[in-house]
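Example with several molecule types.
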Amino acid sequence: MKKREKTRIRLIVNGEPYEVEVEPHKTLLEVLRDDLNLTGTKGSCGVGECGTCTVLVDGKPMLSCLTLAITVRDRNITTIEGLAKDSKLHILQKIFLEKGAVQCGFCTPSMLLTAKALLDENPNPTRQEVIDYLSGVLCRCTGYVKIVDAVLAAAEEIRRRGSEYAEE
Amino acid sequence: MVRTLEPFEYYEPTSIKEASDLLQSFGEKARIIAGGVDLLARMRRREITPDALVSIKFIPGLDFVEEADGQLRIGALASIRSVELSKVVQEAYPLLYEAVHSIHSIQVKNTGTLIGNLCIATPASDIAAALIALDAKVKIAGPSGERTVPLEEFYLGVRKTVLQPGEFVTEVMVPRPSSEAKGAFLKLVRNATDIAKVNVAVLLTVKNGVCEDARVVLGSVAPVIFRAKKAEEALKGKSLDEKVAVEAAAAAAEEAKPITDIRSTAEYRREMSRVLTLRAIRRIMEG
Amino acid sequence: MQRSEELRWVGKYIPPLKMEGIPKVTGAAKYTIDVKLPGMLIGKVLRSPYPHAKIKRIDTSKAEKLPGVKAVITFKDIPKVKYTSSFRDLPMATSRRLQPPDQYVLTDKARYVGDPVAAVSAVDAETAEEALKLIEVEYEPLPAVFTIDDALKPDAPQIHDHAKGNIAAQVKYPFAAGDVEKAFQEADVVVEDTFMTLRQVGAHLEPQCVTALVEPTGKVKIWSPNQLPFPCRREIAKIFGLPESMVEIITPFVGGSFGTRLSMYNEPIAVALAMKTPGRPVKIEYTKEEDFSNLETRTASRITVKMGFKKDGTLIAMQMKVLTWAGAYAARAYLAGPIALMWGMGHYRCPNRDGECTVVYTNTTPAGAMRGYGNVAASCAVEQVMDEAAEKLGIDPVELRLKNLKRPGDDSNLGPCPIESTYEDECIKIGAERIGWWEKRKLKKAEGPRRRGLGMAAMMHCSGAWPLLIEHSNAIIKFNEDGTVNLIINPAFPGTHIWTTLAQIAAEELGIKPEDVRIVTGSTDVAMFDLGSHASRSTYVTGNAVLEAAREAKWQLLERAAKMLGVTPEELDVKDSRVFLKADPSKGLTVEEVARNTIWNLEGEAQNISGKASWSSKYCSPPTAAYFVEVEVDTETGEVKVLKVVVVVDCGRVINPNAVEGQIHGGIAQGIGYALCEDFVINQKTGAVESNNYNLYRIPTTVDMPKDIEVIFINKPDPKGPFGAKGVGEPALVGIPAAIANAIYDAVGIRIKDFPITPEKILKALKEKQSA
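Resulting structure tokens for the full complex:
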């Protein structure tokens, strides 16, 4: 078996710095889930097709299962655990629940983070823009209709409130 | 769950020369990694098990999308998304934009690099088809220095390029199309985010209704993306009309060498080469 | 039966309970892949690379010596107890027909590419994989057969010793009636056609992941996504020679099931490994490639349907012949194949019926159940033959359905049990109107390359599979001092909002808020028996158990409140968490006050108010639905775009409209995938599954969904459902593929007899039609 060596790196996840020892072949997905115990990020296909492993790196949706952890050291990584602020749900999270956009919930972290990235880029997307932006995340339960509805409704509420967070 | 990769040695060169030397010293046993989308997926499936990965992610000066001296330059670390978002690409290289935009997943476009996509060397690459129609060239760095190769000549077969041990692509250059050049990119897929069954990139330079120059590029219907030269001849110097378009499309289909695989049949692909070429030319005619 | 206006919670759009919703949107929800326990080992399975082979020799010595490897097992280490992944002898079946068990935990003969041959547990995944590489297996490849036709050839290799000619089962339609041959002779129009249905893959996003632990007492704990935890427990107990109570199935959150997880997969292997390392849990996580290659697909069959009509459209004769494509083990195909006879011939009124099904073994991935459980297959055949008959009869397809529908009191599709309610006629009429059926079908067809068409299908399913299978659920409700209740149940947890639905039922009856119903679930030790999640049964069967338990708890609550208030229980009612005097509502107590006072009662009359119920179905309340689809076919490329979908559902009173709409949307997506782009592809040379991940097996994305989707509920209560509810999880999808196929025929006059209906097939058929 090939020799295995670890390197100490710093990962900044949800604003917090973590010092971890990683082997180069470990993906960001594995380090998040296994070393940092942040199991909110899920994995599925492993080949770039399903989008289940989406995290934000410097605000951009990327595939954590196809990213070597060592290559994103010192970058700002946002996982689903970092979406709510203290115990205030992000409006996307609140509206996803209200609109019935969550069934089994497995794609939900990726859908939420991707939607957040969309709204950061484009606070007033059209329905087609939402559909296109979310097309890289697969869902087998919902048929996507309520997910798209929820993103549009959340966008409207965020604009109306002038804030991304729901009051508790 | 997502299968863990097999362990490998890992190198982070900080210069092009260092990267090239490392790659040459390992030969077949090492792979270059930029975005890693295709590479890590293949490693995950155990299609390849390199002893070492050479990451170029930390080499400065490779992440750019810019226009200079009438040509578009895209660096090895430019993500596909950064090309899509580039104003100069949207305004002056619409054929490239169409191809990039036809890739749906934001995640893939952020994680993967444009040049990485080119270097997969699959005949189904939408981006490669558009770039060949645009007469793009790639700059290759290697142990004996730099060389430039037209993208059209870069591919030798499925997953085979002209790259020698120690060589890698640092940049792709695209001459700015003239204002009379109009393009269309079309593809057929099983469903929205799939790899193309057939894709077609057509660029026609039209002055006063006459086609002065033509590029008809077919993807997914041969081991490499190719220019359907007979189709191009059928268009050059002719007044563009439906009859000419139909002839050119038929010529393009004849040059195709499609196969049957999980995505489609050879018969269908050949017929669709004709239909897509025809529709692309019609779209250009409509303006 | 209460009227909708009288109901406080049932029928309302309610988001998922916080205890379910918040973990899911914050990443706190723990799924089977997230199970992490101290000392946990990683297990991996060595699989046969051959579709059919003798195993001559296995040498595990090198693997055992690898540092970090804790156990290596092969056939010699597993119990020599045959079982079936679909739970052996179907104690659930009222027919008492036994399904012959035909598989071992690890096999002694490889029967499909992927058949588990050995397994290891190790300290990490890298070591486990390395260990697999060190296991030496000597195979003697045998000839293999992948298709029904090849498996039935007289010289075909025998896959199982007990199944001569590779026939796993031969079943006659149990509800045959009348004289079919005579009736066909008397019929004015007879139509017959044959269709090959699809081996659709469940393709749920969460990979199949099981963790097993053997405790010092010998008790086996299994964290599994299985949809039927109690039957699963029973099966594991049988395999390993344990009493049921020494096996506990724990169900975490599960990332989708769709019927695939009705069967067991890595559970027995994980247990066998865990038994080698008592005290150390073993987690076997399948990769997505393993999922696609080893989990039971939907069962596909070649179905021939023959129907005979009088010229006024009355259906008088029906015959179905089903050839079921099972895999290497009978698994759930054993039932999912033949049950198509019941769905197919039990849908419409027809006095003369017969049919038979032959289930055929092949050297491929086992086939089993997926949402619809044979009704999708039956519908694909029958609903297309109905359209063909309509054309021959010169009767509109909508009218032909309306003429032959069953009515309340008629026998159900699953046996002689009267239908409690059906509004299928309304579903069809409303759907036709909403899609513009009458106007659009009158229009002359367009001239250009893009042609539009309308198609429909209708269906009747079940709310639980009585009288075919036992339908038994239990519920316990206990009050907490704070006036909330714990509802202790165990439907498995695929993500269908069942917790919220059951909480609404409980809250409605108890007069409290759904958010005050805390669901306690996920363990076969804690909950009383529940068959599990299948046959669209949870709302109806578990819901009825919950309703009865709530009635009992409510009665206790009112009794105790009456004592406290010095009145009789009959004078009281409860609403919005307050018990009040009906005659003078200002007089009362909060539910909390009553609950607290009874638990901490200092008068020597302490009690924990509770209710419990066993509910066993003796009824048939089948949900019905009509599906209307508008498509556009590009005749130059053969591509099909679904423009508009209207689904009208009769699932009794809808308890949670948001949840049910979501189910229907998901069903539409799966139906579109089935009809147009999902394809389970087996390499005809190697027998390996080629479509072994999402890049190759295409499920719909956001961009593939039609822009115009309308879901309508009839919302009329069923006499036996809890608050009138019927099941709906499967009906969501059943008729979509047939409706799309019928719409394509309307658009371009082409009927493709298998699935998926790809552009390649359409274009080929169009060209053949042109040259003819």
